[in-house]
């Protein structure tokens, strides 16, 4: 009998791409520290997931200074040992981040037709300082950008809600508004739970609804120093 009959099917990838604002304003009130911890916790949780139906991949695009950059190229979460901490500096080139995200999504060798629908996560505490409209339109109208699950978080009162709402495409989970450090963790924990549930599901392409209110506000559970709030 052919050994092929006993071959274990390779898990399909479930890509998660984070677009993180690392402009100078993120350096105040503990925002960048909370973001660093939240991203690390997300990756750590994904790393512990067994690849049954779906194998979670993570990529991180940062936008701060003069341009956006691929801080963490898309890779299997199980193989990400450590991440360089994010630094906050400069302006908010969000439009360039949209361009980079589109390039990653449409790379047929990086994300194959066999892979599951990607998850995009955008977070920002300010107003884009470059020409973001064309980049956002290209992303949201691209073949894979349209199909991706897109979530957004507004950090603080200065975040441009209109841009984040244009990016977000989950009507059941509108733009999440983070008013203090604990909220960044609540947002990432909710998205982490949703992605993890998808990876364990028999139908990973189906979106798992997110209800931020159900997470509560248990400061002790988060283990955070919440003196820095905004």
TrEMBL record:
Stored PROSITE patterns: VWFA
Domain VWFA: 15-191
Classification via InterPro entries: VWF_A, vWFA_dom_sf
UniProt cross-references to SMART domains, sorted A to Z: VWA
SUPFAM superfamilies in UniProt: vWA-like
Signal peptide: none
One Pfam family cited in the UniProt record for this chain: VWA_2
Protein name: Tellurium resistance protein TerY
Organism of origin: Thalassotalea marina
Lineage: Bacteria, Pseudomonadati, Pseudomonadota, Gammaproteobacteria, Alteromonadales
């Amino acid at each position: 009998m052919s050994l092929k009959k006993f071959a274990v099917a390779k898990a399909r990838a479930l890509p998660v791409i984070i677009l993180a604002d690392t402009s100078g304003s993120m350096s105040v009130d503990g925002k960048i520290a909370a973001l660093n911890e939240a991203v690390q916790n997300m990756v750590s949780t994904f790393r512990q997931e067994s690849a049954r139906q779906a194998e979670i991949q993570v990529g991180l695009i940062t936008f701060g200074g003069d341009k956006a950059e691929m801080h963490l190229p898309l890779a299997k979460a199980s193989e990400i040992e450590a991440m360089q901490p994010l630094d906050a500096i400069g302006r908010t080139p969000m439009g360039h981040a949209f361009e980079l995200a589109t390039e990653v999504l449409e790379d047929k060798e990086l994300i194959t037709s066999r892979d599951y629908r990607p998850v995009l996560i955008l977070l920002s505490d300010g107003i884009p300082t470059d020409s973001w409209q064309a980049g956002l339109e290209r992303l949201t109208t691209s073949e894979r950008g349209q199909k991706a699950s897109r979530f957004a978080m507004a950090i603080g009162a200065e975040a441009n809600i209109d841009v984040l709402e244009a990016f977000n495409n989950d009507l059941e989970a509108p733009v999440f508004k983070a008013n203090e450090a604990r909220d960044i963790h609540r947002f990432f924990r909710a998205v982490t739970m949703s992605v993890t549930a998808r990876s364990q599901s028999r139908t990973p392409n189906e979106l798992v609804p997110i209800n931020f209110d159900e997470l509560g506000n248990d400061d002790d559970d988060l283990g955070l120093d919440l003196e820095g709030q905004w």
